[in-house]
Amino acid sequence: MKPLYLDRSNTQNESFSVAYRKHPNFLKVWHYHSELELVVLLKSVGTRFIGDHIGAFTEGEIILIGKNLPHMWLNDPVYFEEDSKLKAEALVVHFKEDFVGDSFLELPEMKGLSKLLNNAVRGIRFKGEQNDRIIKKVKRLMQLNGFERVICFLQILQDLSLVPKYELLSSGSYNDDFESSDKRKLEPVYNYVINNFKNEFALKDVALLAHMNPSAFSRYFKRVHRKTFTKYVNELRVGFACKLLLEEKYSKTDICFECGFNNLSNFNRQFKVITSYSPSEYLKMQRDIA
Fold first, then answer.
1. Exposure string (b/e) for 230-266, b if CB count within 10 Å is 16 or more?
2. What angle do CA 157, 158, 164 make, to 5 degrees?
3. CA-CA-CA-CA dihedral for 240, 60, 95, 103, to nearest 10
4. In whole angstroms, what is the distance from residue 180 CA to residue 173 CA?
5. Which domains does the chain have, with CATH numbers?
6. Residues in the chain with pLDDT < 70?
7. 112, 136, 153, 260: most buried by Cβ count inside 10 Å?
8. Within 10 A of 202 (CB to CB), how many other CB atoms are there?
């Protein structure tokens, strides 16, 4: 699944675009664009893919996605059933980093905002009490024009930059050089893994996609990502496991095999290595947060 470039440039002679979207399901396309994207999830649930992150999304979340960071919102299967009456609703803002000028972020007063936008290259998830207040402001953007609209959006970004704790989604190495020759060379590998991480596959088969032998591929992948290929795949699998755990529809054993692990002990071990929690501890922590 090669990421598709989508042109999100604003054609309305405005510095950024704001759109309300309501569809039977979200666009099922693995894509990227040169604009940053602020998403307010109003209705629907499913799985988000952002860089090398996989996790559950639900209503009330705010996600900030950096430029050129591949992403996709995949609604749960029930949204694609023929008689489904479910809807996916979101508010989406697309903007360039320099939408208020080249040197704006260099101002000393913009240090917090600059840090926020730099962190957005990994994708950021906001969830907490502040979201209700920020969502109201994003809704208000739809009703404003001109100077007031720009000021309101700057206030929204300022509010997000002041959130004391937010979740970085993709790994630090994923989008460092998305356009680099190294990353382009590995594109067939990313595409294969995102389509097959639930299944067992041999390293030699993946190495062939990069036109390398397994040893050379392993060294190359580790140099580019600063992690082994095995860890990369395990992180994707555990991310999907977190999503299934939060749904509370499946047993831990079912989740283990659904995510591509071949035995429960390995699943438990890798889950704890990657999240620092056992599956049960992770689920309890998320319930406590909610």
1. ebbbbbbbbbbbbbbbbeeeeebeebbeebbbeeeee
2. 105
3. -100
4. 12
5. 4-168 (2.60.120.280), 181-289 (1.10.10.60)
6. 1-4, 10-12, 173-184, 288-290
7. 153
8. 9
